[in-house]
Amino acid sequence: MSSDFYKTSILPFSGIIIKLCRAYTNSQEDFEDYYQEVCLQIWRSKKNFRKESEWSTWVYRISLNVCLTLLKKKKNNGRHFVSDSLTAEETEENYAFSDESLSLLYDAIRKLSEIDRAIITLYLEEKPYKEIAEIIGTNANNIGVRVKRIKIRLRKILDGKIN
């Protein structure tokens, strides 16, 4: 992967990539593996980008698909993906792992269904319902309803009412 491509096409979106990867992992090691695999898949699929959506939407969609695929592989067979260390720039964003309240939120998010994790992560990234719907493959009204339900569920999880 060229460093120019990484700096211009991946690094500007590293925040959401980090958040999505974190929502689907329980350890730093898994997180780093997911992040590296997402970056690799974005690089590999860049030729398939047809400009039918924004580049950011494409990156989010690939990130989500990679996370869901890796999660399924991990459940079924164990690990089958690339693992390298993150660069200093990437780990600065990753210090959130040490923030206790944020860790509690991610623990709660990991208790949601796979698709609800994606929706709430994109919502927390302040993406409009229309863009979330495009990434997820549904309509904006459905996203609005789901966000309300997810917020209620997260509140219950954080209040200790449900597991």
Going by helix content, strand content and strand pairing, the class is mainly alpha
Task: Characterize the largest beta sheet: strand count, sense, and whether it forms a barrel.
Answer: none
- The N- and C-terminal alpha carbons lie at a distance of 41 Å
Number of helices: 9
- Global morphology: globular
Mean pLDDT across residues: 83
Order of helices and strands: HHHHHHHHH
> Radius of gyration over alpha carbons?
16 Å
Q: How helical, in percent, are the residues? A: 55-70%
Task: Describe the overall structure.
By secondary structure, the chain is mainly α. Helices cover 70% and strands 0% of the residues. It is built from 9 helices and no strands. The chain starts with a helix and ends in a 5-residue tail after the last helix.
Summarize the structure.
This protein has nine helices and no strands.
Name its key features.
globular, mainly alpha, 163 residues
How is this fold's topology laid out?
Blueprint: H1 3-10, H2 14-23, H3 28-45, H4 55-77, H5 88-94, H6 100-109, H7 114-124, H8 129-136, H9 140-158
Helix pairs in contact: 2-3, 2-4, 2-7, 3-4, 4-8, 7-9, 8-9
